[in-house]
Every structure is written in C-alpha cells, then in structure tokens.
Amino acid sequence: MHSRPRAVSKEEASIPTLGDLEDCLVDTRSAIVAFSGGVDSSLVAAAAVRVLGERSLAVTAVSPALATGELDGARRVARTIGIAHEEIRTDELAREAYRRNGDWRPGLRAAAEHHVRHPLVEAGFGKSDIRRVARELRIPSAEKPAMPCLASRVPFGTAVDRTVLAQVDRAERAMKDLGFRDLRVRHLGAKARVEIAEQELARACGPDRGAVERAILGAGYDLVEIDPGPLRSGALTRGLPLADPGVGT
What we know:
Layout: H1 10-13, H2 18-23, E1 31-34, H3 39-52, E2 56-62, H4 70-81, E3 84-89, H5 96-100, H6 107-113, E4 116-117, H7 119-122, H8 127-136, H9 162-177, E5 183-188, E6 191-196, H10 198-205, H11 209-218, E7 223-226, E8 247-248
Parallel strand pairs: 1-2, 2-3, 6-7
Antiparallel strand pairs: 1-8, 4-8, 5-6
Helix pairs in contact: 3-4, 3-8, 9-11
C-alpha cells in the first residue's frame, strides 16, 4: 500500500527553502557576490555556485575597516562551498566624506543604480531562515555572529581614520582572546563602550569583568563602560536602512 502524501500546512508552505533562493538565480547569466564570509553572503554564494557554477564569483573588499581574521574566514568559507574568490583592495579612507563619518549612507542608492540584487530578500528569507538553510548546507559560517565593518563602531560625527579602526580592532581581538564571540567595542573617544551578546553578558559583568576592563584598557582606551543591556546590532546607526547582501549581474 502507498501511504497518502502528508498535507503541507499553510505555515510550512510559507517557509522559504534553498530551492526558492536558487530559483531567484536561475535566469541570471552570471553573478558577483559581495562576500564577507558571514552567514548571509555565504548562503548567497553557496546558492550562486550551485546554480551558476563557474559563472559565479565571490569578491571580498579588503581595507583597514575589515576586522582581523575576517579575510581568513572568508577564504575558508569560499574554499568549502567551492566558489571562485577574489580580493580587492579598497581605500575608503581616501574619501573625505568617509573620514568625516556623517549620517548619510549612499550604499543603497549606489546598489540600486548599479542593479544590485538582494536574493535573500527576493526569496523571502528572514534571519532564522538564513541560518537554518546554511546549517542544512553545512556552511562553516552558519553560526558565525554578524561582523559589520569596524567603522560601524564609530558614532556619526567622529572622524574615522586608521588609528581609530586599529584601536577598535585591537580591543575586539582582546575580547575574543577572552572567549567572547559576539560583541562590539563602540569607540567614544577616550572611552570604549563594550556591548556583549545576551548569552555572554553575565560573565562579562560578573566574574570576568576585571579581565574585560584590562583587555580594553590594554588596547589604548582610558575608560571602559560595559553596557548592562545585551548587544543591539546597529546601535550607532539606529533608524537607517540596512542593505542585505546582494549579487551584481
């Protein structure tokens, strides 16, 4: 006897799948994926190489705003998923508007002008869907915390330069050496405000508080504040639209 096919609930039917993401790329002649090695761009890259093969390319921008270790991570992920990977050197600090660090972010407009697509958005993926499908594909960065560029740690109106970015990088590396995974060190001049994910916050505010303070002071800050609330991604850019990883055709 053949069993009757199980009925699919309305909730299950609305859950996006890898197939939905791949369908967004089927009619694409070729794709360049803006590739950080984080879970979002890694999933887009994995889908692109599955659909397009050698007509897909992952590109990572390398600059002083890229945190230590991120490039090595991106290289590892690219090798694992089998996509061609190139690195390009960018020099944002050569632009006065970037160094001034105002509250205008032209990225979305530039993306639209250059016809950048956002396959995760097109396929209806939310954050939990992205990680779920990344786990199914065994992508190495499936559980990796988000890691935006180091300039995102600097408030609007505070100038960005190599010294500031290097100091933030040192501070965050020191925190990771203590075993913390998901954090931000917000650069507030001589003071650093440390924001830590909820699951690690009790340790930072409790038994390891002294070690955290020493780590941040050792990076060159004079004062340390540990935010008593959990990490809120984008805390210094609250209210601005954020772009999802996309592919350029």
